[in-house]
Fold this sequence. Notes:
Blueprint (H helix, E strand, L loop, with lengths): L1 E2 L2 E6 L1 E3 L2 E6 L1 H6 L7 E6 L3 E7 L8 E3 L8 E7 L1 H6 L5 E7 L2 E6 L21 E6 L5 H7 L4 E8 L2 H10 L4 E4 L15 E4 L21 H11 L3 E6 L7 H10 L5 E8 L10 E8 L21 H5 L9 E2 L4 H6 L9 H4 L2 E2 L22 E3 L6 E3 L3 H7 L14 H9 L4 H16 L12 E2 L3 E5 L2 E5 L2 E2 L1
Parallel strand pairs: 2-13, 11-12, 11-14, 12-13, 14-15, 19-20
Antiparallel strand pairs: 1-23, 2-9, 3-4, 4-8, 5-6, 6-10, 7-8, 9-10, 15-17, 16-17, 18-21, 20-21, 22-25, 23-24
Helix pairs in contact: 3-12, 5-6
Amino acid sequence: MSNVKVIRNIMTGYHRSNTRIWIEPTALEAAGLKVGDSITQTVTRDAVILRASVEDTGHTVSKRKRPSWSEPRPLYETCNKEVTMVLLPRERIDILVSDGMIVIRKERSFDLFHIETPRLQGGDLKKLRLFSGPCGGGIGTAAAVDTGLYEAVGGMDIWPEAMDAYLNNFGAGTAFLGDLTRIHPDYIPAADVCLLSPSCLDFTSLGVMGMGISEGHGPHYGRIVHATGAAAVVIEQVPAYFKSSSYAHLKKMLQPFYPEVKETIIDAYDIGSVAGRTRGYAVFFQEETDFEWPGLPKLPLHRRKTVGQVIGKDWEDGEWRSIDGTVMHGLLNKTGNNNFKADKNHTLVDLESKRISAIVANYRRYQVTSSYLRHPDDAERWRPFRSDELAAFLNVPEFYTFPEWMTEGVKTKLLGQSVDCDVVRSIMIEAAVALMGSRYQSLSGKVTRTEPADIREEDGQAAFSFDPIR
């Protein structure tokens, strides 16, 4: 019996009258398959099954290279009449990944109105099970796990590189790689707490044109939360999101089951972080608790850390450039009666500086609203902060690591999309204390739900098990 580690939801292709399926590096690596490995490909009446083989089978894992990867990664393609008889071209499929085996089958559909009675954590006070979505690279998950109160049981995201980073740190549980509107409840693990960071593009200062228009994800986040049976939900996003119709839809889905709701806005700079990061937060509980927002007093200037104290003694390492003749010259000399000037945005900072601008996903697209380091001995030179320095500014736990193949650009983007871990860590501690301090009462009339899918072999063929919990 081997648990499914990753579910990838994609659409099949079409090539020379046959169905074409591409298996990406994320799925292959999760299965333990490497470039050059031989593959046994078995086609059953309802699935295509791939297994690692020690013999030459004629099917081999190939390699693929992209600019965002520092080294080639595995890729597998299958396209023939056998596959076409089972899976049609241009139809949605689920790719279920376990150790040494990949099963490809038609997408499992779902009932949008399927809401089960939530399950509650027992009274044994074990670690709380955490499901994150979108999980990004798992940095918010890392902040929660770092408290020692949570264990990661699953996450979901649509960006393969983000899932690569998540799986690099959290291999247990079940992860879903694909569109959240396609995920079936059977692929969602049971959890005690959900950590949600909904899509924010339409709600940032760069996407205000989308305000008031819902992307329709609210109901899907709601059904995902209900499928986990979580006792609490923690939501993090830019403040504008909490004024959107998308959040209003999600709130309507949750409040009948999670009547206790608390909302606030916190700037990480106000509680001691060098990097500013203003975010809205909301917590939902099934039952009344004594939850309180963490006591986060504003630190006086003399007690704040400097840039140099955060990044350490390796500040000399990096891509030093001259101001003259580079993009920095233009950024420092912006004119006009507006707020987009270097002196108002901490564009160039020193080792003694005690504030930098918020770290954004497009940090490497040099802009006046981001911060870069000025050389302490030569004021005419500058460089961008390295990814490990950006992680330090965001207080990312020391145990968290990126895959070795991942480039600086991808690491920086994942960090820019993530959270300030000190803030999230503090909130997740308060949520855990509130849950673990409450005495849970048994719910009457529980509705059966299922655990995540297992793959097992019966008579040499793959079968699926969805064990009910009562």
